[in-house]
Specification:
alpha+beta, globular, 5-stranded mixed sheet
Amino acid sequence: MPIITFVEPDGARREVEAENGATLMETAIRNGVRGIVAECGGACTCATCHVYVEEEWYGVTGGPSSMEEDMLDFAFDVKDTSRLSCQIKIRDDLDGLVVNVPSRQG
């Protein structure tokens, strides 16, 4: 199982095991990661699971789809590496992924 590191808004680092096929958002919710609200439950109709992917991992996760980009317009403090965690599927090559949770959600 891939290990994912979430850096919570207060700077605390939380390493969790993630199940292949689950989303990054589902993984965060299952593990009680602070700052991931996920109001829409992963339907890509809100921006409350916004994360910043560490730059060295952005090429591995890939960029957002056009639908995801539309939702990111509603996120707080969007950056070049912003993604909605509900749109990132866990797979073996994401082992070691580090994402930062913003100080607030949109």
